[in-house]
Structures are given as C-alpha cells and as structure tokens.
Amino acid sequence: MNAAAVAKLLGVSRRTVMRWVTQLDLQLDKNELGHYQFSDVDVDRLKQLQNETNQQLLKQDIQTENNSRKGVIKNNASLDANIIETLNERINELERTIRSKADDVVSYQLLQHRQETEELINRITTLEARVVELENAQPKREARKEKALVFDQAEPSATSKRSRRKNLISSIFSL
Question: DNA binding happens at which residues (predicted)?
Fold first, then answer.
C-alpha cells in the first residue's frame, strides 16, 4: 500500500502519514520509484499512533474547558467590550483624520488648477495683444484688379467653343 492509500484509509493527509513515519522511525520498503510501501503491520502501528494522538487531544480539550470555567469568561467579556470600544474610537479618529487629509488634498488641487487657469488666461491675453499689434503694423494690401493667372479669367463664351468645334471638324473632313 502506498502513502496516499494509507492517508485515505486513516483520514489524514499524506504529509501527516509521512510525519508519523518519521516519529515512529519506521523502516519501510521502497518501490522502484523510491516511494514508501506500507505493510499491514505498518498500517496498524500508524492507526495506534493516531488513536493515541486523538486521546491526547481530547484530554487537552477537557482540561482547557475546565480551566476556562473558573470565571475567566466574565472578565474576558468585559475586557472584550472595553477593547472593542477602544478600537471603535481609534477607527473613528482615523476616519476623521483621513477625511481631513482628503479635504486638504482636494483644496490644494483646486488652488493649483486655479493658478494654472489664471496663467493660461494671462498668456492668451498677451498673445491676443501681440496679434493685434502685428496686424496694425502691416500695411493694408490693395485688392488686385488685374488677374495674374490665365485660369482666373472668365471662360470663353459658348458660341466661340462651337465655332472652334466646327473648324476642327471641317479641317478633319476636308482634304
């Protein structure tokens, strides 16, 4: 039987089985892969160790219950209430501090944005004044009456186009 099967049989993890093997210093056979092989005798020894461990845990639980019934619960309840109240006060104080700091951060950011906005407005005003100054310094240009490009002139009339076509057609057919 391998370690996983033994762990399943005992209802514990494989790691617990391996810890018990170390505690009992069991000499186990290994298979070709190096995994432990448990015999029925080994499994019985592990079951015995498990029972002993469970009995020790039960004894500890019973002792703990007996010790805790000596009036400690009443003192713990009042201590717990005081501790909870103190913790609540500290939490409330921390929340007030956080809100205050958050308000300070927002106020600072608003002041920074206002300052940046004022700087931009001043810059725009300066640029507008400079543009007006440059426009006034330039001589006004007179509109040109003559057209410099041939393409800007008015198109020839429709009658002249027809006469050109006739001349072209007649030149082609007259030989």
Answer: 3-23
